[in-house]
Amino acid sequence: MRQLADLRETIDLWHSMEKRAGELSDLLDLAVAEQDQSLESDISEGVARLKADLDKHEFQLLMAGPYDRRNAILAVHAGAGGTDSQDWAQILLRMFLQWAEHRRYDTEVLDMSSGEEAGVKSATVLIKGAYAYGYLKSERGVHRLVRISPFDASKSRHTSFALVEVMPEAEAEVEVAISPDDLKWDFFRASGAGGQNVQKTSTAVRLTHLSSGLVVTCQNERSQIQNKETALRILKARLMQLEMEKRAEMQAKIKGQHVSAGWSNQIRSYVLHPYKMVKDHRTGYETSGAEAVLNGDLDGFMEAFLKANLGAA
Fold this sequence. Notes:
Helix content: 40-55%
Number of helices: 7
CATH class of the largest domain: Alpha Beta
Oligomer: single chain
């Protein structure tokens, strides 16, 4: 029913723009026939508004995947490199949260593991809004940072890596069938501040999916039940993503293309020293506005990716 409603909404939208275009055309014909220049500003404004709406909705047509309209579960994992990579993971997390805020999407931190000195080892967030997955699927892969390390007394240049996972949120039980016998649950005390804030009960959970070997930890909620529910949501999303990747690899083999989905699959470089540049290695799109990108200005990269992968899921 939701798919049907979405399709009806899309059809109504394009019919509405077709009607507006017809009305503007009729108004232009009238102005020419009557030689009435007073209608010129109204026609120009109407055309500009229609063009802006057309550009916006043509961009959404690029997201034709079966899950593109869904919420997204995004996870950031620090790579090798200690504190620098953990700090980089936190910078990336902030970048995605800023991007979501710009688009008026709601966000919910599902799990976070802080670094020993700074940053985060890993973090998982739910980003809720129409086409959240469709936009964010462009961010899946390894992100590389080159900068002067703020943690190095000699002020030398460091390269840091972080892995970003993006998965569509599962919306129905039938989409991901999981046998209870295939789940292994472990419970432990959540890490956090000391003193009175120390957890005295085992509220944190570790969920292992025995068939796939996938492991999910969750400790952000104060209740073990809530952490179990959240861990199960993340597991379902990861299983869906795993199935999508298998299908993509099968299609690539049929087409004779090689697809690398490993840790070495670096998608984008962020260079802050000796010059400033952010470049996507898949599309060639780049910008010198590194600060704007790290503050959430990602639309240019996303649009370039979607145009280069038209119709990809």
